[in-house]
């Protein structure tokens, strides 16, 4: 049944918790310089993983310019639409940062935040590239994921998991598009020089897409179809700084049992079969 527009009751957004919070506060660290506004989602984790990797790679910066604090933004209460948060990210979405090393400069959109952090806090190019062609390759993968994997997998999550009305065609459309995008990543890894998307090191090209791919089962996608990508996920998960980033703003639920993943994958395939049957009936 269609819901008439204008009759949906949207609750007023609650004020976000914009004060400093827990993460990044370690012994010997100065006052937080970077303020991260985030939530426990793939987009949120991109930025906390990058911050934690930079802090691990540059211990001196971790005590100074990369000292950060975290404000957990509860998107279920629409805190991200509150005027105080819109002043930080006019798009009203998490994550965003305010950087006091640059006069409270605000940065939003995950890929833009990763590039900002690289340009200002990765002087030795540990997670990015000095070479113009490698840098360009990294940007290609970053734009590919920012414009493709994130938005499409986000829609797969919405239609497969959260939608109060299940639309088989929409589930088929987005789950299969995520699978197609993963096949591009799989081919990209096969073409690469080693274990990573670009060059021979773990870089922001990997960080920018990993939090989505690690959540593949949530979109009903079976990562085992993509063996190189599955091994890449395991390689990244083994990095301590990645685990630290995944626990911001709060520790997650931990590893998910394979049976739960298999059930999600089977459910998604049932919806796709339903969509195929509906489309076949329409063509008759
Ligand atoms: N393109 C944005 C996407 C950010 C985004 O969609 N964030 C989600 C959480 S993963 C969000 O804030 N959702 C709440 C909303 O849509 O209001 C980015 O990369 O930063």
Automatic annotation (TrEMBL):
Residues 131-265 form the GST C-terminal domain. InterPro entries: Glutathione-S-Trfase_C-like, Glutathione-S-Trfase_C_sf, Glutathione_S-Trfase, Glutathione_S-Trfase_N, GST_C, Thioredoxin-like_sf. SUPFAM superfamilies: GST C-terminal domain-like, Thioredoxin-like. Keywords: Transferase. Residues 31-125 form the GST N-terminal domain. It comes from the Eukaryota. Pfam families: GST_C, GST_N_2. Residues 1-32 are annotated as: Disordered. Its EC number is 2.5.1.18. Belongs to the GST superfamily. This is Glutathione S-transferase 2. It comes from Vanrija albida.
């Amino acid at each position: 049944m269609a819901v008439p527009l204008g009759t949906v009751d949207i609750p007023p957004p609650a004020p976000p918790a914009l004060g400093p919070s827990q993460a990044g506060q370690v012994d010997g660290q100065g006052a937080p310089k970077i303020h991260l506004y985030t939530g426990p989602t793939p987009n949120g984790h991109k930025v906390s993983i990058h911050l934690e990797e930079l802090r691990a790679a540059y211990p001196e910066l971790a005590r100074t310019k990369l000292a950060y604090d975290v404000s957990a933004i509860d998107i279920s209460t629409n805190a991200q639409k509150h005027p105080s948060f819109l002043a930080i990210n006019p798009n009203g979405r998490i994550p965003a940062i305010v950087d006091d090393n640059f006069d409270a400069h605000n940065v939003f959109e995950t890929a833009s935040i990763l590039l900002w952090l690289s340009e200002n806090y990765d002087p030795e190019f540990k997670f990015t590239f000095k070479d113009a062609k490698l840098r360009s390759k990294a940007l290609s993968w970053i734009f590919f994921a920012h414009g493709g994997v994130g938005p499409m997998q986000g829609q797969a999550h919405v239609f497969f998991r959260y939608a109060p009305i299940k639309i088989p065609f929409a589930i088929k459309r987005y789950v299969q598009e995520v699978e197609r995008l993963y096949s591009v990543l799989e081919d990209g890894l096969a073409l690469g020089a080693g274990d990573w998307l670009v060059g021979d090191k773990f870089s922001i090209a990997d960080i920018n897409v990993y939090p989505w791919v690690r959540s593949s089962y949530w979109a009903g996608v079976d990562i085992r179809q993509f063996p190189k990508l599955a091994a890449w996920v395991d390689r990244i998960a083994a990095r301590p700084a990645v685990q630290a980033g995944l626990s911001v703003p709060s520790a997650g639920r931990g590893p998910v049992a394979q049976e739960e993943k298999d059930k999600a994958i089977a459910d998604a395939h049932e919806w796709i079969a339903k969509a195929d049957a509906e489309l076949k009936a329409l063509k008759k």
